[in-house]
UniProtKB/TrEMBL annotation:
Record protein name field: 16S rRNA (Cytosine967-C5)-methyltransferase
Keywords for the protein's UniProt record, in alphabetical order: Methyltransferase, RNA-binding, S-adenosyl-L-methionine, Transferase
GO-annotated molecular function: RNA binding; RNA methyltransferase activity
Active site as annotated: C484 (nucleophile)
Binding positions (S-adenosyl-L-methionine): C361, A362, G363, P364, G365, G366, K367, E386, D410, D431
Family listed: Belongs to the class I-like SAM-binding methyltransferase superfamily. RsmB/NOP family.
Compositionally biased intervals (Gly residues): 1-21
KW Transferase (keyword) present: yes
Organism field: Asanoa ferruginea
Ranges for region Disordered: 1-102
Signal peptide, first to last residue: none
Residue ranges annotated for the SAM-dependent MTase RsmB/NOP-type domain, each copy included: 259-548
Length: 549
């Protein structure tokens, strides 16, 4: 399976955000996710100012119940003399009745991720909606869920010491409840006594026999702060920098190594990236040229125009699906980096005809939607290819009303499918399936699911799609190769190997001038790597190739 990705939680399955396929899990090895972020460029504190990635926005200072509004509004007594949980007036809370709905929803979502391989961005919103958890309570549940999943590596290291046993030896229901408790104690401003008490209540509900054990473990965790725990559980930075960063910022070691290599070996920059990776991303809209203007739309919804993309609008909050601009097709949810790489291909100078555009891996449709809108303004026609039927339908929705044709076929079938002729297109986008390491902030569980063994089948598919794109483009035409991963095997190696095996002559086009003037940190070219900590975008890679014969 292959198909493109944009924000939305993923275009290939991302987390906290909306989009065409808000986080649908990718099949075929791609697992990317992408909704948005803000960085120092967008007026947020510098990444380096975060204390080990501790959330600054989640200043929840709740007591044991965790509900800012109080139980009378959501869990209060009804006219019949009992609360919604069915307790008689004056009776002590029992089981799940003792757990506030925000923490219970967070526990159920985390348990589903670990027990059922669920995706948090898919299961949590439904839980909150069904249980009528709203406002700050919903925000608290979201922070607990995503923060606990992101920080699992560090949390488990702390739990191992505090419990005196390997985490795998703790009963799963108690283990997931303890993870939520540790997150509250070490990463939020919930008072430690409240975090301990509320988590013990949760353990009593889900693993009654483990409440005494949980109380002892959590009190041990609360005996020191995060920095003190990091000093104890992480190897020294001087002797094992990768191991230290892995434990301090909760990323698998192989991912830390991949990031450090892509950043030229810089430990400082790698640290900044890991910190930014642990921040909850915001949501960015992409206005569709010809249907809306970014500045006007920002004023309409109370947002802000993007820092770099002329089509980007930063959403101030709320669910993007509730916006009229999404429902009426004037905009869609898409990471600013995804907008930039798609627009770069569309804006690159070209000799000869410029009427036939191709998106070879289009699902679920974010980049196709932007390209189709641009094609409409320039007298071009977009062909969008998607191999999976349900994603092809999403692409059709994304390009509705624009000069575009959607093909439900395999992008590698160039020359075999009559609708995909060789040398039949002027511009071709290959938004290749990848590990999604550039969008880990959107998929809180993805960093623990991805493995180095995922790389060989993905890189083989990337090379095959790139060679298909080079066959599809006419001499003098352009191919844009894009991944949402900075791993050098998926970027430079895939491009080098793909072009070498194609036997088609190409030149690299310097992609830096194709991005907005003034963008910092674009490197030495000709390819471009965007970064969360430098640009506030997902870590999108772009190579632009011109076929010369």
């Amino acid at each position: 399976m292959h198909g493109g990705a944009d924000q939305g939680g993923s275009e290939r399955g991302g987390p906290e955000g909306g989009g065409f396929e808000s986080g649908r899990p990718e099949s075929g090895g791609a697992d990317r996710g992408r909704p948005e972020t803000a960085s120092a460029d967008r007026g947020r504190p510098e990444s380096g100012g975060a204390d080990r990635g501790r959330p600054e926005r989640g200043g929840f200072d709740r007591g044991r119940g965790g509900s800012e509004r109080g139980r009378s509004e959501r869990g209060g007594r009804d006219r019949g003399g009992s609360d919604r949980g069915g307790r008689e007036r004056g009776g002590p809370p029992r089981g799940r009745d003792a757990v506030d709905p925000a923490r219970q929803a967070a526990y159920d979502a985390v348990a589903a991720v670990h027990r059922d391989d669920a995706y948090a961005n898919l299961v949590l919103p439904g839980m909150l909606r069904d249980r009528d958890v709203r406002g700050r309570d919903a925000a608290f549940a979201t922070e607990l869920t995503y923060g606990t999943l992101r920080s699992r590596g560090t949390i488990d290291a702390v739990l191992t010491v505090a419990a005196g046993r390997e985490v795998d030896r703790i009963d799963p229901p108690a283990r997931d409840a303890l993870r939520l408790g540790v997150y509250q104690i070490l990463y939020t401003r919930v008072p430690p006594h409240a975090a301990v008490s509320s988590t013990v209540d949760l353990v009593k509900a889900v693993a009654p026999g483990a409440s005494g054990f949980a109380n002892a473990v959590l009190r041990e965790v609360a005996s020191r702060d995060l920095d003190a725990w990091i000093e104890q559980v992480a190897p020294p930075a001087e002797t094992d920098p990768v191991g230290h960063l892995s434990l301090a910022y909760s990323h698998p070691q192989w991912i830390v190594r991949a990031f450090q290599e892509a950043l030229g070996g810089s430990v400082d920059e790698t640290t900044r990236l890991l910190i930014e990776d642990n921040q909850a991303p915001g949501v960015t809209l992409c206005v569709r040229p010809g249907r809306a203007d970014a500045v006007e739309l920002a004023e309409e919804i109370g947002g802000a125009p993007g820092a770099f993309s002329p089509y980007a609008v930063y959403l101030p909050g709320g669910a993007p699906g509730d916006l009229a601009v999404i429902r009426d097709g004037r905009a869609h949810v898409q990471d600013e980096g995804s907008q930039l790489v798609a627009a770069a291909l569309a804006d690159a100078p070209i000799d000869g005809t410029d009427e036939r555009w191709l998106d070879l891996c289009a699902g679920p449709g974010g980049k196709a939607g932007l390209l189709a809108a641009l094609a409409a303004q320039r007298g071009a026609h977009l062909t969008a290819v998607e191999v999976t039927e349900h994603r092809a339908k999403l692409v059709s929705q994304a390009v509705a009303g624009f000069p575009a044709t959607v093909l439900h076929t395999d992008g590698r079938d160039v020359g075999k499918d009559p609708d995909l002729p060789e040398e039949g297109f002027d511009r071709v986008l290959v938004d290749a399936p990848c590990t999604g390491l550039g969008a880990l902030r959107r998929r809180p569980e993805a960093r623990w699911r991805r493995q180095p063994s995922d790389l060989p089948p993905l890189t083989r598919l990337q090379r095959e799609l790139l060679t298909a794109a080079l066959r599809a483009v006419r001499p003098g035409g352009l191919v844009g190769y894009v991944t949402c991963s900075p791993h050098t095997v998926e970027t430079h190696v895939s491009v080098t190997e793909g072009t070498r095996r194609s036997d088609i002559a190409v030149d690299f086009v310097d992609a830096r001038p194709l991005l907005p003037a003034g963008m910092p940190g674009l490197g030495t070219g000709p390819t471009v790597q965007l970064w969360p900590h430098r640009h506030g975008t997902d870590a999108m890679f772009l190579a632009v190739l011109r076929r010369t014969s």
